[in-house]
Amino acid sequence: MRVVRAKSAGFCWGVRRAVDAAAAFAREAAGAPVWTDGPLIHNSREVARLAALGVRTCADPAALPAGSRLLVRAHGVPPARRAWLGSLPLALRDATCPKVTFIQKLCARAAEEGRAVLILGDPDHAEVVGLLGHAGERGRVVTGPADVAALPDPGAPVALFSQSTQEPALFEATAEAVRARWPDALVRNTVCDATRARQGELAALAEACGAIVVVGSPESANTQRLAALAARLRPTVVVDRAEALDPAAFAGVRAVGLTAGASTPDDLIAEVETRLASF
Ligand code: SF4
Fold first, then answer.
1. Is 172 a catalytic residue?
2. 119/105 Cα distance (integer angstroms)
3. Is 97 near ligand 1, meaning CB less than 6 Å away?
4. Does residue 197 share a domain with residue 155?
5. Number of domain units in the chain
6. Are 48 and 111 in the same domain?
7. Which residues form the domain of 173?
8. Considering only CA atoms, which residue is closest to atom 2 of ligand 1?
């Protein structure tokens, strides 16, 4: 079976930057642990690789001994948490993706202008929690056009932004609903270019292939979103390890498309590619 691998499969720029920052921090620590403020990445293989370097997940930074090293994740944090982390006696380093920082600033500026700030995103996702913190009291998370229709009138001008990993088509549908209610709304599509490229490549994969394989963890929201989009185009299999692939699922398939979520490491994608090619 021929395997067509998407160029955008795997780590996005921001995740790679955060992983590299954690590894560099660990090298400087020379054996002492480096803590991350929550899981650095939603992939157990990569978490294990980083753990071998001394990078561990911290559940409660206040409980760390003074002088401990702590890294803020690519998702970013609300301003209040950033200030609290800065007040602790820790060596703090910030690996917030600059593209997320940009969206945080847009949210904060819109709130300063007196706007109600709508954020299209997954309400429980760390990036969205951070964005909401920057939007302040007037911030609201919406998950699509229906939420926009159900919102009480905020009594203020409205702004709409997006979590970096949302689906561009969903953003456009949500933006249409916002403009229909508030024609003067400030609308800015902040879906990241890495997300657009990854989702955009699916169409080419579907055209060239009879099935699609998406590699990533069940806990990775962007992997699951990518898989849902792929399933609209072709029969889709989602796996988090090569051994989970069942050859019977590809009977009659001559070419398979291969892509992966933003938290999937390259070596895992390569293993899946090798096994698919052996079918
Ligand atoms: S998806 Fe985009 S904004 Fe989010 S971490 Fe990756 S590069 Fe940064």
1. no
2. 13
3. yes
4. no
5. 3
6. no
7. 99-187
8. 192
Which residue has its alpha carbon closest to ligand 1 atom 7? 14
pTM for the complete prediction?
Answer: 0.93
- Give CA 24 to chain center in angstroms: 22
Helix (H) or strand (E) holding 195: helix 193-208
CA of 246 to the centre of ligand 1 (A): 32
Measured distance CA(248)–CA(117) in Å, rounded: 48
Radius of gyration of the chain from its Cα atoms, rounded to whole angstroms: 20
Which pLDDT tens digit goes with each residue over 18-55?
Answer: 999 999 999 999 989 999 999 998 888 899 999 999 99
Candidate list 127, 167, 201, 273, residue with the active-site label:
127
Q: Which residue's C-alpha comes closest to atom 5 of ligand 1?
A: 14
Q: Ligand 1 mean position to 191 CA, how many Å? A: 9
Q: What CATH number is given to the structural domain containing 157? A: 3.40.1010.20
Same domain, 153 and 165: yes
Q: How far apart are alpha carbons 46 and 42 in whole angstroms?
A: 8
> For residue 41, what pLDDT is reported?
87
Does 106 lie in the same domain as 89? Answer: no
